[in-house]
Structure formats: structure tokens, C-alpha cells
Design a protein that fits this description.
The chain is α+β, with helices and mostly antiparallel strands. 28% of the residues lie in helices and 22% in strands. It is built from four helices and five strands, in the order βαβαααβββ. The longest helix has 13 residues. The two termini are 25 Å apart. One of its GO terms (molecular function) is protein heterodimerization activity. Belongs to the TRM112 family. This is Trm112p-domain-containing protein. Interacts with TRM9.
Length: 123
């Protein structure tokens, strides 16, 4: 499933595409919201692994503006709930992710991204 928690870890791996290949940009997406169990400890532990600006930008691409531009010093319940929603409850069901460097499109179908490359695209 394409959620922003996984999107935040994906980069383009086309041969020769080594700069400006993260984050992948969403296009023509259909999203579905699904409830997920709230776990503040998990969120606090996962937060240091996130590329924050990429997460905020991706959330905005999907129509969610609930995250602040910078991680707040005080991680209160309101912030953690917004982070939980963006990371775990927004599911991209259809669409594509595109590399901003080389333009390669990774299609998303039934919530599953196709990250496979043709033989001539493999580094």
C-alpha cells in the first residue's frame, strides 16, 4: 500500500539518476482514508527517520495541510494525531509517482506501486 510512511523512503533508482531523485512526486492520484490504530510511541520513534520537508510536501500534494512546516519542539497530542493521519491513514490507491530528475513514472494500481525497472534502466 502506498502510504506516506513508505513514500518517504522511496527514491528513483533508474541508471544514472543519482541526484534530485527524492522525493517522488504524486500525480493523478485517487486516495482513500482508512482508520489506523493510534500509537504515539511508534510515531515519536519513527519521526527521526523521516525527511520532514518531503513528508509535508507530499501531504500537501494529496490535499492535507495539517502538518507544520517544521517539527515542533512540543510534540503534543494534536501534532501526533496529525502526523498519524498523514503517515498511516492516507492511502494512495491509484495514480503515479514521478521522479523530478529523470521523469520516470512509477504507476500505482490497487494501492501497490510498481517500482520495477526495465533491464536497460537498472543501474
Amino acid at each position: 500500500m502506498v502510504r506516506l510512511i513508505t513514500h518517504n523512503l522511496l527514491a528513483c533508482h533508474v541508471k544514472g539518476c543519482t541526484s534530485n531523485n527524492f522525493p517522488l512526486r504524486f500525480s493523478d492520484v485517487q486516495i482513500e482514508l482508512r482508520d489506523a490504530e493510534f500509537n504515539p510511541e511508534f510515531l515519536r520513534g519513527f519521526l527521526p527517520k523521516l525527511e520532514w520537508q518531503a513528508l509535508v510536501d507530499a501531504a500537501k500534494e494529496l490535499g492535507d495541510t495539517s502538518l507544520p512546516n517544521e517539527i515542533p519542539e512540543m510534540m503534543d497530542d494534536e501534532f501526533l494525531q496529525a502526523l498519524h493521519h498523514v503517515l498511516l491513514e492516507i492511502h494512495v490507491e491509484e495514480g503515479a509517482m514521478t521522479c523530478q530528475n529523470c521523469g520516470h513514472k512509477y504507476p500505482i494500481s490497487n494501492g501497490i506501486p510498481n517500482m520495477l525497472l526495465a533491464e536497460n534502466e537498472i543501474a
